[in-house]
Amino acid sequence: MTLKACKVELRYKPADLPKNQDEDQEHGQKPHHELSPGLVAVDPDLTRLQDIVTETAQTFRVFYIRQLNSFARLGITRDLFDQLLSACHVFPKFNEYMIGFRVKQQEAEIAPPPMRFRPLMENDKCYGFECAYMLRYVEFTNRPGNDPYSLRHFAVSHKYGSVTDIPYSTWILAGMSHRTEPCLDRFSSGADDIHQANPFELHIMFLDTTSDRAILMTPGNQSVPNHLVSVDIEDLQKLKCIEDDIADSILCLKSTSRTISTLLEMHKYYSEHISCDPLDKGLQSSYGSGPDAIEFALEECQDEVVHNREMAESLLSKLQSTKSLISSLLKHQRGYNLDQQMDTLHSLEQQAQEVMRQLIERINHELANGRILTIITLVYLACTVVSSFVAKQQTSSGIRVMYSQNSWLFFAMPILLTAFTLLIWYTWVHFNRMTKALVSSGEAREKGYFHRMSAPVEEDGGKYGEGGKESGKDKVSGDENKTEKGAEGAEGANGSGHEDKKEGL
């Protein structure tokens, strides 16, 4: 059996791959597409991969390398993958795109490697080309969670040549999405001769599929009035997640735009340098003929991607403005809450001060009552002590108390005792202060005495010199003589006094 076009699906699935999570959004199963009449499905014996590649070398063939889900590895071993690339003579640059298919916990947020292109030359003539690239897109998933969209990617390797009258194409599609797989069937069924179809048509179909616009926002609750919108820190966190998603989408759109630009350059280069035999005979497509139609379709895809990127950038700018607004509202809300707390604390402080004032007034009132009672008790205590000394007389008719004639003492003595008691209390309370006052007054008197004693000597010495000192000595000696005479007079007086006393006796 001679194959003109075939679809080869590599169904090698390691046992350790995780279960599928998002193969189909509705039924949880992988969708199966009916093949067009132009393709033949081949279930290869992986031990005879080299023989199958050799048999289908001059045909339109597609190799699918699947994965169970977007987080799983590709369903192929390293040895089998290297054997496939070697048998199909794929350039080694295609290995750079396999890094994104490693086991991961979340979708990668980095741009894929740029598109690689290499013309196939023989005798200074271009008979074909080879390219490899990776497309990233946003796809709706059935995973539970808040975000219903996920970033996906798939790798494409295409080798096209026309050494003979019948051109051949080799496609290797790794991690192809379920939305993109039907493109191959539509391409094969829409072309009269799949070999004579323009090799760039399928690239355009892939770009059209992956450049679909994803809805990045959901309508809010319309029952909530517009003027009653509450914001909190969770809204700011949600906006941050949406901002990251939009930034990733912009990155994907930029990568897709670069891929389209490379395809445009590649198409122009191929149209100018390829021989006229295979290209001018039958380039027919579903939307026009000739290389101008392909160029127009690529430019249309480029314009759509640029438009989507501008919309995403505008949405990102509005989102950043909304973040700034919510951040300002949160700051004002925190300030308002702080003012409310300060007002509450001020009110509590005033209430506490009022309670303390009432408590102090009550304590002062009780202290005043205690002082009055103490004074009354003190007065009656003195009266009681005085009354105990009053004379009592007993008659035959009964006991009768008779006061002495000095009855005024009963009223005078309590007053004196009360004053004496208050004096003792005042002295006891102010004892330390009175002691300090007496000590300070004594020190002041001593300082004044020494000052008076030293002042005349300094004046005489300064005014008269040595003569002043001698006169000072004379004054001192005179004072001593007066002191001696005074002492003798005192002794004489004492002696005469004693004698007079003796005579009197």
TrEMBL record:
UniProt keyword Protein biosynthesis present: no
Statement: the UniProt record of this protein carries the keyword Zinc-finger: no
Membrane-traversing stretches: 372-391, 411-429
Stretch list, region Disordered: 15-38, 456-505
Highest taxon of source: Eukaryota
UniProt keyword annotations, A-Z: Membrane, Transmembrane, Transmembrane helix
Annotated InterPro entries: CorA-like_dom
Segments forming domain CorA-like transporter: 54-164
Pfam families: CorA-like (PF26616)
Basic and acidic residues bias (residue ranges): 15-35, 460-488
Protein name: CorA-like transporter domain-containing protein
